[in-house]
Amino acid sequence: xxxxxxxxxxxxxxxxxxxxxxxxxxxxxxxxxxxxxxxxxxxxxxxxxxxxxxxxxxxxxxxxxxxxxxxxxxxxxxxxxxxxxxxxxxxxxxxxxxxxxxxxxxxxxxxxxx
Amino acid sequence: xxxxxxxxxxxxxxxxxxxxxxxxxxxxxxxxxxxxxxxxxxxxxxxxxxxxxxxxxxxxxxxxxxxxxxxxxxxxxxxxxxxxxxxxxxxxxxxxxxxxxxxxxxxxxx
Lengths: 114, 110
What we know:
heterodimer; A: mainly beta; 7-stranded mixed sheet; 4-stranded antiparallel sheet; 11 strands; 0% helix; B: mainly beta; 5-stranded mixed sheet; 47% strand; globular
């Protein structure tokens, strides 16, 4: 069964450093998403991406964040200058279409900012 | 998107049906009800969704009341692996994001 994959599974970085989290969505999916979950808290939407542009973003997704689909398979989330409060699990998801279609999630990348 | 209310936790015996309720009294006509679950430290997993009619798939059944103000997710024969946090989410088909609440922590007991 096709699945969303994410690398790395765990990333440790120092405050102020740039990090790139990588995702490989399901191959025929067209819509891509990033969510995050701070330990013990709710899952929060960050951004959705379609046709090489952002279709929706939350207040969390400020200028420090960017997304890119550099080739036909990868989907990345970049945090330019990490803060302690960026420590969280980051989940990538994809869906075949917008609308009443399920989103499939990857296993997540645990980001620890020290 | 309409808000949902779920009990914070529930227990169920292994092999029995687990019935997870969700209230969405402010749901509007074009909003779907989705259920996801998150097994500890894993990514959320889609279970099922519906608009008006009851739905069933290999994982679960979704029962939506006629007035659509509440729904129940049924896991027909719960196993220990079904222990997870279950999220009921309401959204329109024009929205991209899923808005997550606190969910119901379901514990399956042997």
